[in-house]
Amino acid sequence: MFVYNFKLNIKKVMIVLGIIAVAVAISLELGLFKKDNKNINIYDNDFDYVISETNFTNMLKTIHENIDENIGKTVSISGFVFTMPDFKDNYFVCGRNMILSGDEKVVGFLCNFDEASDLLESEWVEVTGVIEKGFYQTDMPIIKVKSLKKITAPENTFVNPPSNY
Predict the structure, then answer these.
(1) The CA-based dihedral angle spanning residues 74, 41, 82, 133, taken in that order and rounded to the nearest 10 degrees
(2) pLDDT tens digits for range 81-114
(3) Domains of the chain
(4) Is the distance from CB of 109 to CB of 126 less than 8 angstroms?
C-alpha cells in the first residue's frame, strides 16, 4: 500500500485557474468556440445562411415558412434594391428577378436598414444581418441589416423558382 502525502498550494492553484479563465475569455472573444445563434458576431463570416443565386428561392421559401425557428439567425445575401411606395422609410427588399408562368417577378427579403433612403432603386448590394420577425401585410422575416456593401450586378440577375414549386 502506498500513501501519498501532498500539500496543496492554494496560491499556485489560484494562479493556474486565473490563467485558464483568461485563456477561455480570449478564446470566446476571438470566436474560437461556437457561440449560440443570438450572439454570433456576423463579421466573422460565420453565417447561418449564405444565400446565393443557386439557393435563393429555396432559402427564401424555407425561412418564410419557418419564421420563428429562424429568428436570430445570421444571413449573407446579395441582390438589388427594390422598394414599394407603402414601405417604411427604413425598408427595402434585397431582391432578384424570377420568371414564373411567363411573368417577371421580384423575389427577396425585406430588409430594415437605417440608411435605406440613401440607396438607389435597382442598385446592387451585399447585405449581412440578423433575421427578425416583422410585419408587412402579414408576419414575415425581416433582415435587420448589420452591414451593407454596394456591389456590381452579377452576369445573371435571375433566379429559378423554388425546387418544389
Answers:
(1) 50
(2) 999 999 999 999 999 999 988 889 999 999 999 9
(3) 38-159 (2.40.50.200)
(4) no
Q: What is the pTM of this model?
A: 0.71
- 111-128: per-residue pLDDT in tens? 999 999 999 999 999 999
Question: DSSP letters of 58-92?
Answer: HHHHHHHHTHHHHTT-EEEEEEEEE--TTS-TTEE
Cell (9 digits) for 121 = 432603386
Question: Angle CA(118)–CA(133)–CA(143) in degrees, nearest 5?
Answer: 35
Look at residue 44 and give its three-state secondary structure: helix
Lookup: cell for 134: 416583422
pLDDT confidence tier of residue 163, bands split at 50, 70 and 90: confident
Which element (helix H / strand E) includes 28? helix 10-29
Which residues are within 8 A (CB) of 145 and not within 5 positions of it... i.e. 6 or more apart? 111, 112, 113, 127, 128, 129
